[in-house]
From TrEMBL:
UniProt source species: Methylomonas koyamae
InterPro entries: Cyt_c-like_dom, Cyt_c-like_dom_sf, DUF2231_TM
Protein name: Uncharacterized protein
Pfam family, one: Cytochrome_CBB3
GO molecular function, one term: heme binding
Matches recorded under Gene3D superfamilies: Cytochrome c-like domain
Domain of life: Bacteria
Length: 241
C-alpha cells in the first residue's frame, strides 16, 4: 500500500527508513515534558507546567505519525516479519501511546494533576526502551555472535571496526571486505596492517591507523582470533553460520 511512496522517495534519492527520523520528536518531547515538569516543581512556576503539557501534546501528535510510519517501514524493510525486537517494540509503542495520550487528556482537565509528572516519567522510560530495541534492530548483526572465548576480540571489533566493517563487509571500499581478507591468515601481517593500513597499491586509504594506544598487541591478538572465527569461512564448522 505504502510502496509507491517509498518508491517515489527512492527515485528522489532517499532510500532509508522514515521511522527513525520521526521518532526523535516524541522522544525529545517526552524528555522535554519531564524536564519542564521538574522545573515547575522546583520553581513553583505554573508557566513551566503548561509548557510541559504543550510539549507532551506535541509528542502525542508525532507519535500518531511515527507509529503508522514505523509499521510501513517494517513492511518495507523487514517484510513484516514478526520477530522478537518487533514484538517488544509493538508492546512498548502501545504503552507509550497510552501514557502520552493519558497525559494529554488529564492535562486538558487539570494541569495541577499529580498524575502528569508520573506519566511524563513513565513515557521517558518507555521511549528509552523503544530506542534501545530500535538500536538492537539496526545494529545487532553488525557484530556476529561468538563463543565466550572470543568475547574480548568481539568487543574490540564492536567498538573499533564494526562501523565500517559491519558483518565483515566494507562500507567504504566494498571490494576490500574484511571477510576472508588476506591479512587474516597471519597475525604479524594483520598487526602491521591495522597499525598502518594500506590500499593494495601501497598508498594510504581511508581506514584509520590503530596504534598500540588504541588497540594493544594483546587485544589485537584477541581481535585476530575473533575475526578468524567470525569471518574466515574455512575456520568454522559448517553448522556455526
Ligand atoms: C573508517 C572506516 C574503517 C574502520 C573503522 C576500520 N576499517 Fe578496515 N578498512 C577500511 C577501508 C576503507 C579499507 C580499505 C583499505 C584502506 O582504506 O586502507 C579497509 C581495509 C581493511 C582490511 C583489508 C581488507 C582487504 O580485503 O584487503 C582489513 C583486514 C581491515 N580493514 C581490518 C580492520 C579492522 C580489524 C578494524 C578495526 C580495528 C578496521 N578495519 C576498522 C575502513 C575501515
Amino acid at each position: 500500500m505504502s510502496h509507491w511512496f517509498y518508491d517515489f522517495l527512492a527515485a528522489l534519492g532517499y532510500s532509508h527508513p522514515l521511522h527513525p527520523v520521526l521518532v526523535h520528536v516524541p522522544a525529545g518531547m517526552s524528555i522535554g515534558a519531564l524536564g519542564f515538569s521538574i522545573l515547575a516543581a522546583l520553581t513553583k512556576q505554573a508557566a513551566f507546567r503548561a509548557t510541559a503539557y504543550h510539549v507532551a501534546v506535541f509528542a502525542l501528535a508525532f507519535t500518531l505519525l511515527a507509529i503508522p510510519v514505523g509499521i510501513f517501514d517494517w513492511q518495507r524493510f523487514y517484510g513484516g516479519a514478526w520477530f522478537f525486537e518487533i514484538q517488544i517494540k509493538a508492546v512498548l509503542a502501545a504503552l507509550y501511546l497510552l501514557l502520552i495520550a493519558s497525559a494529554a487528556v488529564i492535562g486538558r482537565r487539570c494541569l495541577e494533576s499529580k498524575a502528569l509528572p508520573v506519566l511524563y516519567f513513565a513515557s521517558v522510560v518507555t521511549v528509552a526502551g523503544l530506542g534501545f530495541f530500535g538500536g538492537q534492530l539496526v545494529y545487532h548483526g553488525f557484530t556476529p555472535e561468538a563463543p565466550v572465548q572470543f568475547k574480548i576480540g568481539r568487543q574490540v571489533f564492536d567498538s573499533h571496526c564494526s562501523g565500517c566493517h559491519r558483518r565483515g563487509e566494507n562500507i567504504l571500499e566494498p571490494n576490500m571486505p574484511l571477510r576472508n581478507a588476506p591479512q587474516l591468515h597471519d597475525f604479524a601481517e594483520f598487526l602491521a596492517f591495522i597499525r598502518n593500513p594500506r590500499m593494495p597499491d601501497g598508498s594510504p586509504g581511508v581506514m584509520p591507523q590503530f596504534g598500540s594506544d588504541r588497540i594493544s598487541d594483546l587485544h589485537a591478538r584477541e581481535l585476530f582470533d575473533y575475526l578468524n572465527f567470525a569471518f574466515v569461512a574455512s575456520n568454522r564448522p559448517a553448522s556455526a553460520q
